[in-house]
Amino acid sequence: MRPIPYGRQDINQEDIDHVVSVLKSDWLTQGPAIEQFENIVARYCGAKYAVAVNSATAGLHLGALALGLTESDSLWTSPITFVASSNAAFYCGAKPDFVDIDLTTYNMSMEALEKKLRASAKPKVVVPVHFSGLSCEMKKLRELSEKYGFKIMEDASHAIGSSHDGVKVGACEHSDLCVFSFHPVKIITTGEGGIVTTNNKELYEKIKILRTHGITREAQKLSENDGPWYYEQQHLGFNYRMTDIQAALGLSQMKRLENFVVRRNQLANVYKKEFEGLPLAWQVISDKNLSAYHLFVITLDLSKIKKTHLQIYKELQSHNIGVNLHYIPVYRQPYYKKLNHVPSDFPNAEKYYQTAITLPLFPSMTDEQQKYVIEAVRRVLV
Ligand SMILES: *Cc1c(COP(=O)(O)O)cnc(C)c1O
Q1: How many CA atoms within 13 Å lie on the side-chain side of 245?
Q2: Is 129 a pocket residue for ligand 1 (Cβ < 6 Å)?
Q3: N- or C-end of the chain: fewer Cβ atoms within 10 A?
């Protein structure tokens, strides 16, 4: 038996046909599919603007630059995230720092954030990570940003299709920017890819020009001495463009997004029902939230289990279950050691790291596969 992975893409014939039609067209990149994809995502989320990029990592980098993050600044985020959330600070020469999580939501704790804001130099940018698709407390975060004067860039890599209070993540109701990832394990995919949404025209234009070398062709209107070939590099930008091949896949996947979210929620609800009474916990999601459910994470109550975290992890692996651990607290990474973070400053992140296991969850997971996983979990816990 092949291991059941923790996540995987779902590609159907329509997705393939969409991609093939772009392959046969005149434009493999910088063509019309990009703008179509941007418009569909912006409209879906309820944001004014969207810029497609070649990864969420690139989106976070450009977002941080557009927000003016420089050497003298710091960027704060959750330690329970993928390294890309905080690497955006290093790319700008700025310093990343972390705020402990809440052990019921696995998201950045607003109480811990407020405490840190009162006690230390203010960050330029705070990056809330919507863990597994559960929105952070954005209203509270906005209040704090107004009081303490920082910008908000959402790392919504897990959260396309999520909503809070009936408002879609990506609407940027309480943030400056929002970044989605379309890596194959995420909710929808473009192979590699990401998108930044915003309601701020200035940020939109900045990110758009930085995506393509800092070059604009619109400047040619201003230039009287030059010909129609004229373009102008105004900033040091990058080639962070998404291809039309990827955008075609994204357009097709967007049509399937709602179904993916429904199926992910179905599977998550079955896990919760079947795990009732076992010595483990999972993310608490209030009625105000719809989560896209990128991940299903359990945290073990080790005081009630006669095995270690590692033993349980390995036993699940030996049953051919593609377990994972999202995430190693980022401050534990060797590259981050120079920041001298002390793990005991993040007691909840540490506790989470010592007990968490990600179980398989993806739209094409069958009921039989899930039953197999549930049985295995029951068996290894005794
Ligand atoms: C996947 C992920 C990223 C990076 O996304 P890419 O599109 O692979 O660059 C960033 N942050 C979080 C929380 C992620 O899960």
Answers
A1: 6
A2: yes
A3: N
DSSP at 152: E
Residue nearest to atom 5 of ligand 1 (CA): 56
| Sign of the four-CA dihedral 360, 361, 366, 370 | positive
> In testing the pocket of ligand 1, which one of 82, 246, 297 has its CB within 8 Å of the most ligand atoms?
82
Q: Report yes or no on whether pTM surpasses 0.90.
A: yes
pLDDT digits over 13-61, tens only?
Answer: 999 999 999 999 999 999 999 999 999 999 999 999 999 999 999 999 9
DSSP state letter for 30: S
Instruction: Name the token pair of 334.
Output: 């060797």
Rounded to 5 degrees, φ, ψ at 281 are -130, 170
Give the side-chain half-sphere CA count within 13 A for 232: 12
158 vs 140: CA distance, rounded Å = 21
Mean pLDDT per 10-residue run, the chain (382 residues)?
Answer: 92 98 97 98 98 98 98 98 98 98 98 97 98 98 98 98 97 98 98 98 98 85 73 94 98 98 98 98 97 98 97 97 98 98 97 98 98 98 89
Amino acid identity for residue 147 in this structure: K
- Dihedrals φ, ψ of 249, to 5°? -65, -40
Residue 109, ligand 1, Cβ within 6 A: no
Nearest to 134 by CA among 32, 329, 264, 249: 264
Burial 192-227 (b: 16+ CB within 10 A, else e): bbbbbbbbbeebbebbbbbbbbeebeeeeeeeeeee
